[in-house]
Amino acid sequence: MFMSILKFIFQMFFLLLIAPLFTGIIRKIKSKIQHKIGASVFQPYYDLIKLLKKDLVVSSTSSWIYNVAPYVYFITSLAAVMCLPVVYQFKGFSFYTDLLVIVYLLVAGRIFMALAGLDTGSTFGGMGSSRELLVSALVEPALFLIIITVGANPEIASTSVFSIYDYAVKNSSSTFSTINILLFAAMLMVMIAESSRIPVDDPSTHLELTMVHEAMTLEYSGRHLAFIEMGTYIKQLVFMTFMANILIPVGLNMENILAGLGIYLLKLIIITFLVGFIEINTVKFRLFSLPNYAVIALIIAVLGFLTRFVLR
Amino acid sequence: MYNNVLNLLAILILISSFTLVANKRQNAYITTFRLQSLLLALISLIISVKSMIETKKFDEVIFIFLLIVVFKVIVIPMAMRKTSDRVEYKVEKDFFINIPISMLICCGLVVLCWYVVHHVEGITNPTTENYLIYSLSVVMIGLFFMISRKKALGQIIGFLVIENGLFLAAMMTTDGMPMIVELGLFFDLLTAFLIMGIFVFKINSTFDSIDVNKLKHLKG
C-alpha cells in the first residue's frame, strides 16, 4: 500500500517534470527547420519559473471565477493525466477509472477557462472562449468514437482504463493493427486540436483575428498564467500518453520500471516529432475550415470503428 | 513484423487518399499525390528486398521501385507543378460537393468496397482480403475525386490516384506482377499524362481557364 502511494507520487512529479519539455522540443524542431538556432529545449521551464516570480494583475471587475479558473484548469488536467498509468507497473494504485472520466475532466477545466475568458468582459476573451468551445465541440465526436472503438474490442468490452491496459499489455505485438493505425491518425488530429497547435490554432501568435486559446488567456498574468500554461502542457501529455500507451502498446510489459519509463519517453518524442513535422508543413486554417478538419478526424475514426466490426 | 509494416503503409496510402479529397488547392493535391507515390514506392522496395533475401535471387520488383520513384515521385509531380504554374491560376472553388460531404461519401465507398470484396469467393487469406479492400477503396476514391473536381488538373490527379490503387492491388496480392506488365502500365500512364497535360494547355488557351465546366459553352 505504502509502495503504491509512493509510486503514485513519483508518477505525478515525473509527469509534472516532463510536461513542458515536449512543447520545447516542438519549438526547437520548428526553428531548426527554418534555419534558426531557436530557444533552448528547456525554455518553457524558464518561462514558467519567471511567471511564478511575477506579480499578479487582476481586473477589478472580475469575479471569483477569474481567480479560481487557472487552478481548476491545472488540477483537472493533472487529475486526467493521473488516470492513465505511464508504465504498466504503476497500475492498481489510482482510482478505478474510465476513459470517459478523463474526457469529462478535461471538459470541466475547459468550461472554467471559457467562463474566465468571459468574466473580464474584454472582447477578445469572449471571442476566444466561443472559439475554444467550438473547437472542442467539433473534435469531440472523433474523440468519443476513438474511445468507444478502443473499448468495443470484444476482449475488453469496457472503457475502464485498467481492462484496456491489461489488454494492451497482453497484445504488445499487435502494434500496427489496422484499427490502431487508423485510431492513431485520428487521435493525432484530435490531439493537435485539443492542445491548440498549428493547423487549428497558432500558440505563438498574438494577432487578434487568429488567436483561439491565447485570446482566452489574454488577461492573465503571473502565477495564474503559469498554472494555465502548465495545464495546457499537461493536457497535451494526456493525449500523447493515450496514443503512446494504448494505441502503440510496444514495451508496456517491461519488468524494469526505468526501462519502461525510457520507452515511454521515446514514444512521446516520436509523437512530438510527428507533431512538429505537421506544424512546419501546414499553415493555420481559417476558423471556418475547422469543420473540414474535424470531419477528416471523425471519418478516420469511423473507419476504425467500422473495421472493428466489419473487417475481421 | 513484415506484414505489420506492409499493413501500416497500405493504410497510410488509404489515409493519404482521404486527405487528397480534403485538400482544396492544386499544389496541395500534387504534394499529397507525391507522398502517396512515395509510400507505394516504399511498399515495392520492402516486397522486393524481402523476396531477394528469401530466394537469394535478383528480383525484378526493384525496377518497379525505381520506376515509381523516378516517374511518380519526381517527374510527374514536377511536370504537373510546371503545368499549374503556366496555366492561369485563380483561387476559386474547385469542387462540386463540399468537403465534409465528400469525406462521408468516401467513407461510404470504403464500406462498399468492404461489402463487395467480402462477397468475392475464393479469397481465403484474410490479409489479402484486407489489402484488396484498401486498394479497391483507393481506386474508388480516385474515381470520386475525378468526378468531384472542376479543374482539369484535379482530374489528372484523380486518374493517377486510380493508377496508384491498381498498383497497390497488384503489389499486395501478387508480390509484384511480371516486369513486362508493369512496364506496359507505366508507359500507358505516361502517355495518358502527356496527352492530358497538352489538353490542359489547350483548354487554358481557348477558354482562359482550366475549368472543364466551360467546355460546355460553344466557342466561335
TrEMBL record, chain A:
<keyword id="KW-0472">Membrane</keyword>
<dbReference type="InterPro" id="IPR001694">
    <property type="entry name" value="NADH_UbQ_OxRdtase_su1/FPO"/>
</dbReference>
<feature type="transmembrane region" description="Helical">
    <location>
        <begin position="233"/>
        <end position="252"/>
    </location>
</feature>
<feature type="transmembrane region" description="Helical">
    <location>
        <begin position="172"/>
        <end position="193"/>
    </location>
</feature>
<dbReference type="GO" id="GO:0005886">
    <property type="term" value="C:plasma membrane"/>
</dbReference>
<dbReference type="Pfam" id="PF00146">
    <property type="entry name" value="NADHdh"/>
</dbReference>
<feature type="transmembrane region" description="Helical">
    <location>
        <begin position="258"/>
        <end position="278"/>
    </location>
</feature>
<feature type="transmembrane region" description="Helical">
    <location>
        <begin position="290"/>
        <end position="311"/>
    </location>
</feature>
<feature type="transmembrane region" description="Helical">
    <location>
        <begin position="64"/>
        <end position="87"/>
    </location>
</feature>
<protein>
    <submittedName>
        <fullName>NADH dehydrogenase subunit 1</fullName>
    </submittedName>
</protein>
<keyword id="KW-1133">Transmembrane helix</keyword>
<feature type="transmembrane region" description="Helical">
    <location>
        <begin position="6"/>
        <end position="26"/>
    </location>
</feature>
<keyword id="KW-0812">Transmembrane</keyword>
<dbReference type="InterPro" id="IPR052561">
    <property type="entry name" value="ComplexI_Subunit1"/>
</dbReference>
<feature type="transmembrane region" description="Helical">
    <location>
        <begin position="93"/>
        <end position="112"/>
    </location>
</feature>
From TrEMBL, chain B:
<dbReference type="GO" id="GO:0005886">
    <property type="term" value="C:plasma membrane"/>
</dbReference>
<keyword id="KW-0472">Membrane</keyword>
<feature type="transmembrane region" description="Helical">
    <location>
        <begin position="95"/>
        <end position="117"/>
    </location>
</feature>
<feature type="transmembrane region" description="Helical">
    <location>
        <begin position="29"/>
        <end position="49"/>
    </location>
</feature>
<feature type="transmembrane region" description="Helical">
    <location>
        <begin position="61"/>
        <end position="80"/>
    </location>
</feature>
<keyword id="KW-1133">Transmembrane helix</keyword>
<keyword id="KW-0812">Transmembrane</keyword>
<feature type="transmembrane region" description="Helical">
    <location>
        <begin position="6"/>
        <end position="22"/>
    </location>
</feature>
<keyword id="KW-1003">Cell membrane</keyword>
<dbReference type="InterPro" id="IPR038730">
    <property type="entry name" value="HyfE-like"/>
</dbReference>
<feature type="transmembrane region" description="Helical">
    <location>
        <begin position="179"/>
        <end position="201"/>
    </location>
</feature>
<protein>
    <submittedName>
        <fullName>Hydrogenase</fullName>
    </submittedName>
</protein>
<feature type="transmembrane region" description="Helical">
    <location>
        <begin position="129"/>
        <end position="146"/>
    </location>
</feature>
